Amino acid sequence: MAEPATYAVAPQETRATDRVVTVILLIGLAVLAPVAGFMGLLTAMASDSCGSGTECNDGLVATGVFTSATSPIIVALAALVWVVVRWRRGRATWWVPLVAVVVAAGTWWIGALITFGAVGS
Asked: What InterPro entries does the database record attribute to this sequence (predicted)?
């Protein structure tokens, strides 16, 4: 019986433009993530109307604010790690920061919706 063929996976050569675009997008992500985190903290102002006769779920408000404030930064750090891994393997990395922006915006909105849903519930 013949032995199965094995193939050595050599790192692929990436283009310089891929690396330049990735670094520029990561810089943009590094600027946007803390700004989005700060904006997530501002979603706590949705609970300003909680004292005037409306029922609010304080735990859910805190969960939503925490999600909105931390998720962009966590997603940005995960994207940085994933870029480094793909870069070391010689893979294309330009798309990772773009996906991270979309995921960070989505998780930010989920946290904001949790916060706004907890007010008046």
From this structure: DUF6264
